[in-house]
Amino acid sequence: MEKIREVISYKNYFEDFLLQQPQKVQDKIYKIIEAIETLERVPTNYLKSLEGTKGLYEARIQLGTNIWRVFCFFDKGKLVILLNGFTKKTQKTPREEIAKAISLMKEYYEQKNKENGN
Questions:
Q1: In which band, very low, low, confident or very high, does the pLDDT at 34 lie, cut at 50, 70 and 90?
Q2: CB of 93 within 8 A of CB of 83?
């Protein structure tokens, strides 16, 4: 399948999270990333925007009754930058996880601006 988006991870937050998960979960996460890369319209049960966060999304992974979330955002419409992930244990996404993702997103743009000489 042809990729319509490029998915990269920012620093090592996503990889650290991924490597802590059982193989089955890692496989499922890779499937969802593949869907994000190749599907024109990614279903909201895979990728959902978080209200009130200025562009933060969560990739949604479910295996049985267990739920995982990986935060990400788009850069120039195509690039999906994967940030931190966590195991979801409550109905609502924990505020501290969202705050962490927002600060990583800010850090990403600040670093990018420096590299571009802005």
A1: very high
A2: no
Q: What is the pLDDT of residue 86?
A: 94
> What is the Cα–Cα distance from 84 to 29, expressed in whole angstroms?
13
Whole-angstrom CA distances from 7 to 63, 74, 75 are 22, 9, 10
Sign of the dihedral through C-alpha 38, 73, 51, 91: positive
Q: In terms of residues, how long is the chain?
A: 118
- Token couple for 90: 């409550």
Q: What is the pLDDT of residues 54-106, one digit of tens each?
A: 899 999 999 999 999 999 999 998 999 999 999 988 888 889 999 999 999 99
Q: How far apart are the first and last CA of the chain?
A: 37
- The token pair at 100 is 């962490």
pLDDT of residue 100: 95
Taking the C-alpha atoms of residue 116 and residue 66, their distance in angstroms, rounded to an integer, is 41
